[in-house]
Amino acid sequence: MEVTSLREPKMADRVATVLRRMFIRGEIAEGAMLPPESELMERFGVSRPTLREAFRVLESESLIQVERGVRGGARVTRPRRETLARYAGLILEYEGVTLRDVFDARVLLETPMVVQLATDRDPKIIAELEQIVEREAELAGAGESPHELIDFHTAIARLSGNKTLQIVSDMLRHIIEKAHRSLPSIEGPRAQQAVRRSTKTHRMLLDYIKAGDATAAGELWERHLKKVEEFVLSRSDLSTVVDLLE
Fold first, then answer.
1. What is the pLDDT of residue 14?
2. CA angle at residue 243 from 229 to 185, to 5 degrees?
3. Tell me, what's the pLDDT at 223?
4. Greatest mean pLDDT range, 52-61, 100-109, 153-162, 203-212
5. Taking the alpha carbons of 168, 173, 178, 180 in that order, is the dihedral positive or negative?
6. Backbone angles phi, psi at 212, to 5 degrees
7. Per-residue pLDDT averaged across 132-145, rounded?
8. Domains of the chain by residue range
9. Range 11-76: architecture per CATH
């Protein structure tokens, strides 16, 4: 095979790659300001337009925040999962993915998590879930709305112990929260009933986890997630992911 020419990556991309690696490795701490442009230009041997193009790349990835003004500059920030959710949402839209598909993916992702938690019966995890459920019960008793309840789903993903699954779960949860917020608000007795129903389900799941009944835990959580899916989709005119993320 004859190769006639190879194109090197753009210098701005190479600068962005070096800085990105430094952020991820912790060589430049979150919240720190990058050195002045003149110093970075000298270090990398690049022009100001090239450096600013690298900044635009990193800013689009939520790795820096460029602050304007006399005391401005580029501040290192932590990548936001909302950014991941937005980009993922665009890809899902190009693939023709519906909201139902997203909800179904959450069922497939979270159900094995609760099965594993019930199988392991880790006392520390059970104690943490107990605190969350008790706090939810307090909020429900105080008449708080569903959106103000502690996110039990987030805890399930976090306590599963798999960071990759947690990130994917957070991405789906962000999209699903958008779907919930697209619905007309529910108030009064109906809202309180929804809160009580959710807290009751969370308590039942915790009891199954304590008992080590993995089968019952998985079946309960799958039913719960599917009911939530039907509740949202039956009340929303939105059908695709990008409808929510724009």
1. 92
2. 55
3. 95
4. 203-212
5. positive
6. 75, 20
7. 79
8. 11-76, 82-245
9. Orthogonal Bundle (1.10)
Check residues 71 and 54 and name the one with the higher pLDDT: 54
- The second-level CATH assignment, the architecture, of 82-245 is Up-down Bundle (1.20)
Residues 6+ apart with CB under 8 A from 220: 201, 204, 205, 208
pTM (2 d.p.): 0.72
CB atoms within 10 A of CB 236: 16
3-state secondary structure of 245: helix
**Beta carbons of 142 and 75 less than 8 angstroms apart:** no
Q: How large is the average pLDDT for residues 223-239?
A: 81
| CA dist., res. 186 & res. 172, Å (int) | 23
Q: Report the distance separating Cα 66 and Cα 125, nearest Å.
A: 40
Tokens of 222: 């799958």
DSSP-derived 3-state class of residue 25: coil
